[in-house]
Design goal:
Blueprint: E1 2-11, E2 14-24, E3 29-33, H1 40-48, E4 55-60, E5 63-64, E6 75-78, H2 90-100, H3 105-118, H4 134-146, E7 152-156, H5 164-181, E8 184-189, H6 192-198, E9 201-206, E10 209-214, H7 216-221, H8 226-231, E11 236-237, H9 240-245, E12 253-256, E13 261-263, E14 269-277, E15 282-289, E16 292-299, E17 312-317, E18 323-326, E19 329-330
Parallel strand pairs: 3-8, 3-9, 6-7, 7-8
Antiparallel strand pairs: 1-2, 1-4, 4-5, 9-10, 11-12, 12-18, 13-17, 14-15, 14-17, 15-16, 18-19
Helix pairs in contact: 2-3, 2-4, 3-4, 4-5
Bound molecules: adenosine-5'-diphosphate (ADP) and magnesium ion (MG).
Magnesium ion binds near residues 40 and 41.
């Protein structure tokens, strides 16, 4: 549905994206994940046609749109503030694009009603955006793009200003609409949890470079680079003495996920608890192992019974679970 081929983007003399190649399937939920300033918005705006490509090509549904202006590209953008017209009703907001396109009024009415129903906001059609909840406004923003027959929707951090509970609901909401209405979604976020939970596939962006493209599980269990390993999920970077204890002296760079360190009374290595961070369903226990502090995650409250800072314990670390890197690439 979207094919990005050797895309290069510069702002004046500054190269933001050196060379990006990427294919996004029809109906896929694809996420660009990376820290602030890495170029996510730039790529999204390039797909939409608001930022020119310095080199390379962008194809939408097989058509090269690299030189096409934004208004000729069949993509919609859902912004963080939804950018709805505040003085217009929900119905008029959704109908706006069709009216501008000079569609006939029975056609407009049929299309708008169909999409309001599909997105579950028909009962609010006469209300102004300010009378709607954030979730409902988001649906209006999505409906407004979909009513134009748009098959590609671009989302630029639409959930990043919301509090945790609302954000969870909105994630599910966007996913539900995407599945039911079957559009192709390109979603931008700096929030790795959001990216892991929503995406069919995601791309981890590191200073304009795609470090890795894959499914959430794939990226978590087989991070291609140390950057991906540190950015996705939590990890302990192992120092020389821990590596040595595990017989991994030769390994350049090694990480272990907190859930792969096991507390076990009969474990192979002695350690000391230094701190306990109670988080409910999953807590973090900090331990001192040789001269290093490592985080161990424990599931449920029972696992914490009898544990307290200062306590001497035994641990097991399965060396096959250690993520080992050489020259910036995963070797195990
Ligand atoms: N219009 C612009 N002119 C010059 N530099 C820009 C412009 N827009 C973004 N940048 C720079 O390009 C880089 C990537 O920005 P952006 O794509 O917004 O990152 P992200 O969305 O990942 O936070 C940043 O260093 C930013 O300062
Ligand atoms: Mg951005």
């Amino acid at each position: 549905m979207i094919s990005i081929q050797n895309l290069k983007i510069c702002y004046g003399p500054v190269e933001v994206v050196p060379d990006l190649t990427l294919d996004i399937e029809r109906g896929e939920f694809f996420t660009l994940l990376g820290p602030s300033g890495c170029g996510k918005t730039t790529v999204l705006r390039a797909i939409a046609g608001f930022v020119p490509a310095t080199a390379g090509n962008i194809l939408l549904d097989g058509v090269d749109v690299t030189r096409q202006p934004a208004e000729q590209r069949d993509v919609g953008i859902v912004f963080q503030n939804y950018a709805l017209f505040p003085t217009m009703s929900v119905y008029d907001n959704v109908a706006f694009g069709l009216r501008v396109a000079k569609k006939k009024s029975p056609e407009i009415k049929a299309s708008v009603n169909r999409i309001l129903e599909a997105t579950g906001i028909e009962e609010h059609s006469t209300k102004k955006p300010e009378a709607l909840s954030g979730g409902q406004q988001q649906r209006v923003a999505i409906a407004r793009s979909l009513v134009m027959g748009t098959q590609v929707l671009l989302f630029d951090e639409p959930l990043s200003n919301l509090d945790a509970r609302v954000r969870d609901d909105m994630r599910k909401e966007i996913k539900r609409l995407q599945r039911e209405l079957d559009f192709t979604a390109v979603f931008v976020t700096h929030d790795q949890e959001e990216a892991l939970s929503m995406s069919d596939r995601l791309l981890v962006f590191n200073k304009g470079v795609a470090d890795q493209i894959g499914t959430s599980r794939n990226l978590y269990s087989k991070p291609a680079t140390p950057f991906v390993c540190e950015f996705i999920g939590a990890s302990n970077k192992l120092g020389a003495r821990t590596k040595s204890a595990l017989g991994l002296d030769e390994v350049e760079l090694a990480y272990i996920r907190p859930e792969e360190i096991k507390l076990n009374p009969n474990g192979a290595f002695p350690a000391t608890i230094t701190d306990i961070d109670f988080l409910g369903p999953m807590s973090t226990v900090e331990i001192r192992f040789h001269d290093e502090l490592l985080n161990v995650s424990l599931t449920g409250t029972d696992a914490l019974k009898g544990l307290e800072p200062g306590l001497s314990i035994k641990i097991d670390i399965n060396r096959n679970k250690v993520l080992c890197f050489k020259d910036g690439a995963l070797i195990q």
